[in-house]
């Protein structure tokens, strides 16, 4: 349960204000099919995070525990710093999508998540818990909650939620995970 809850909280918080959340808002505004867009986000996230958590688990099995804890500490502390910088989304010039709302969402979301902090955090959390299925469930649920807010409530929430505070809380979570990993490396 700790793997699901920990990965859910970390990804849900880190996704707030992330470029993929901005992409979710943009796609929902463009297509006006929120459930189709959310379905595309789900498929892309499961595929992307299953890959990331599998890689993270494989690495954790093949790297000594103390080294892994130190690497995770550095990654989490780096993610905390990265989170403090707000994301932006580059527009595509208003070109009409070629493949419809669902396939466009799947393709764009999968590609946008490649190398994104939530994908890398998924790898790191999977390495920490060594439970790729549970981590994928938690991170996917976290993405769907955060991006679901963008898809269904984006216009109403954007004026009421100060993203600066959300970034600070998210960065604090990454720093906490980093410090716990650092403590583990030091003790080991």
Automatic annotation (TrEMBL):
Where on the tree of life does the source sit, at the highest rank?
Bacteria
User: Which subcellular locations apply to this protein?
Assistant: Membrane
Q: What are the record keywords, sorted?
A: Membrane, Transmembrane, Transmembrane helix
| Gene Ontology terms for molecular function | metal ion transmembrane transporter activity
Membrane-crossing ranges are: 35-59, 65-84, 96-112, 132-153, 165-186
Query: What is the recorded membrane topology of this protein?
Result: Multi-pass membrane protein
Q: What's this protein's family per the entry?
A: Belongs to the GDT1 family.
Q: Quote the protein name from its UniProt record.
A: GDT1 family protein
- Source species, please? Corallococcus carmarthensis
């Amino acid at each position: 349960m700790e793997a699901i809850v920990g990965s859910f909280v970390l990804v849900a918080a880190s996704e707030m204000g992330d470029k993929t959340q901005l992409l979710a808002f943009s796609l929902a505004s463009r297509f006006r099919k929120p459930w189709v867009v959310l379905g595309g986000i789900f498929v892309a996230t499961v595929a992307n995070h299953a890959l990331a958590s599998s890689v993270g688990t494989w690495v954790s099995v093949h790297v000594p525990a103390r080294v892994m804890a130190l690497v995770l500490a550095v990654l989490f502390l780096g993610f905390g710093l990265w989170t403090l910088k707000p994301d932006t989304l580059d527009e595509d010039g208003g070109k009409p999508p070629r493949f419809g709302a669902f396939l466009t969402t799947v393709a764009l979301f999968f590609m946008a998540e490649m190398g994104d902090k939530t994908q890398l955090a998924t790898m790191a959390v999977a390495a920490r818990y060594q439970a790729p299925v549970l981590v994928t469930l938690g991170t996917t649920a976290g993405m769907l909650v955060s991006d679901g807010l963008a898809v269904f409530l984006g216009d109403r929430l954007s004026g009421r939620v100060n993203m600066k505070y959300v970034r600070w809380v998210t960065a604090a979570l990454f720093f906490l995970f980093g410090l716990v990993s650092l403590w583990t490396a030091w003790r080991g």
